[in-house]
Write a structure and sequence with these properties.
By secondary structure, this protein is of the alpha+beta class. About 30% of the residues lie in helices and about 25% in strands. The chain has helices at about 20, 25-30, 35-55, 65-80, 85-95, 135-140, 160-170, 215-230, 255-265, 280-290, 335-345, 410-415, 420-425, 435-440; strands at about 105, 110-115, 120-125, 125-130, 150, 175-185, 190-195, 195-200, 235, 240-245, 270, 295-300, 305-310, 325-330, 350-355, 360-370, 375-390, 405. The strands form 5 sheets. A 6-stranded mixed beta sheet has the order 9-10-11-14-15-18, with helices on both faces. Strands 1, 12, 13, 16 and 17 form a 5-stranded antiparallel beta sheet that branches. Strand 6 and strand 7 (about 190-195) form a beta hairpin. Helix 9 (about 255-265) runs parallel beside helix 10.
Length: about 450
């Protein structure tokens, strides 16, 4: 699970059996002990999460959940918790009881950071390794993209629970190693203990420069890496095709306008939203609007006390009017899914790839601080609006089924080939091999 995984943690469908996974918390909890002071802090976190949900959750019935009973259960678990991990897991479970993709607890930063050095994702209904960092323990043990992940710490990854496995082991409870069962194509399953690169974080970060600037430099390096991974990529292929990989909707309207103005000089735009977990509604509306002359009603945004039509204003003569292909996968979520579905409903283009995440809500994030001289920070994301599409359908926990389902094979993942992009370019009238397609948008590692 690489650093890029973190931005996808909360965009996948919520599992229906949360308790089953979180029951393993007591068996993997780190031996930290829980002081009276720590227990009090965790109880405060639970209260803050409850209050945010009570005040801002879009559904006043809380999806049928007895919020008070759920709170009492979580409070009792904190009271009985023997470790910090178990206490924090009780707060996390309380938020997850809503079965909502955008409502979750963000715990305080842990003093241990675990970089696992590999990443996995769903392809169809199977979980595959999709990236392995050179020099990692996973690489040394022979893990490669295309390996099928059969088990992670005793749990079988599925479309329903993968996000929760990532949430548990990446954010809530980082582990020094993961017990993994994988199978390479044509081989027998093998059991691996994949060790993480563990780094002890400082309890305090010096931003004054009195330490020689090492803390500041580390923060800058981490920020630059994350920034690079989220940068769009625009490639021209031949004279007629523009390919735009958009990793996030956190882009400005000016950038959207500039790219689509560039696309106007081409016959075809391939919009690659694979791995895009969403972003601001304003950017979504701006992009949809630039894809057509006329305004489009995306759907009805339902909040607790009002409903609002979500409309993308058409761009008239400035709209891109050429052929459009939208590429999606299991990690395309939120705004990516809405755009893909709008393209289908308006018959504006074709959607290719894998079924999307099914995580389409609008949420607000609140950060909290506890303490004065030494403070801890934590937060909660709460869904404040649901979206019903213009055809009356909802995408939450359903996703978008592409017009053409194209699933990379284990061999494609191992070789880095891209049959989805190759198919889009071929449909645009230009031959392109999967191997060449795989190299077109590949980023160099820092």
């Amino acid at each position: 699970m690489s650093a890029t995984t973190c931005r996808h943690l909360f965009t996948l469908c919520l599992p229906t059996a949360c308790a089953a996974l979180f029951s393993c918390v007591s068996t993997v909890a780190q031996a930290q002990g829980l002081s009276r002071f720590d227990r009090s802090r965790i109880e405060t976190m639970l209260e803050d999460v409850r209050d945010e949900i009570t005040d801002h959750y879009y559904d006043s019935t809380f999806n049928g959940l007895d919020l008070r009973a759920a709170y009492d259960t979580a409070h009792a678990r904190i009271g009985a918790a023997a470790t910090l991990d178990v206490g924090l897991a009780a707060v996390a479970q309380f938020a997850l009881n809503l079965h909502d993709s955008h409502t979750f607890f963000v715990p305080p930063q842990r003093t241990m950071e675990a970089e696992y050095g590999w990443d996995m994702a769903m392809v169809g209904d199977s979980c595959f390794v999709v990236d392995v960092a050179p020099g990692s323990d996973a690489a040394r043990q022979g893990l490669i993209p295309g390996d099928l992940v059969l088990s992670l710490n005793g749990h079988t990854p599925t479309r329903d629970n993968l996000w929760q496995l990532l949430y548990l082991y990446r954010l809530l409870m980082p582990q020094p190693s993961l017990q993994t069962v994988v199978r390479s194509p044509g081989a027998a399953p093998r059991r691996l203990e994949l060790k993480a690169a563990v780094r002890e974080r400082q309890h305090l970060v010096d931003l004054t420069g009195t330490d020689g600037g090492s803390d500041i430099a580390r923060l800058i390096r981490d920020g630059e890496k994350a920034y690079d991974e989220l940068q769009p990529v625009v490639k021209e292929y031949g004279e007629d095709i523009l390919i735009w990989r958009l990793p996030t909707f956190a882009v400005g309207e000016r950038e959207i306008r500039d790219v689509l103005n560039r696309a106007q000089r081409r016959k075809t735009l391939v919009l690659d939203l694979r791995g895009n977990s969403g972003g601001p509604v304003q950017s979504l509306l701006a992009l949809v609007g630039r894809l057509g002359r006329d305004s489009v009603v995306l759907g009805m945004q339902r909040e607790r006390d009002k409903q609002t039509r979500l409309i993308a204003k058409g761009a008239g003569d400035e709209a891109f009017s050429g052929q459009l292909f939208v590429l999606v996968d299991s990690r395309s979520a939120s705004a990516s899914e809405v755009l893909a579905r709008v393209v289908q409903l308006t018959r504006r283009g074709r959607v290719l790839g894998d079924r999307t995440a099914g995580a389409v809500m609008r949420a607000s994030y609140r950060q909290f601080m506890h303490g004065t001289q030494i403070a801890i920070f934590y937060g909660v994301s709460v869904t404040n609006a649901d979206l019903v599409m213009s055809d009356g359908g909802r995408l939450e926990r359903v996703g978008v089924l592409p017009d053409e389902l194209i699933l990379p094979t284990a061999g494609d993942l191992a070789a880095g080939t891209d049959p989805v992009l190759a198919r889009a370019v071929m449909l645009a009238g230009t031959p392109l091999g999967a191997a060449e397609a795989g190299s077109l948008l590949r980023r160099k590692r820092r």
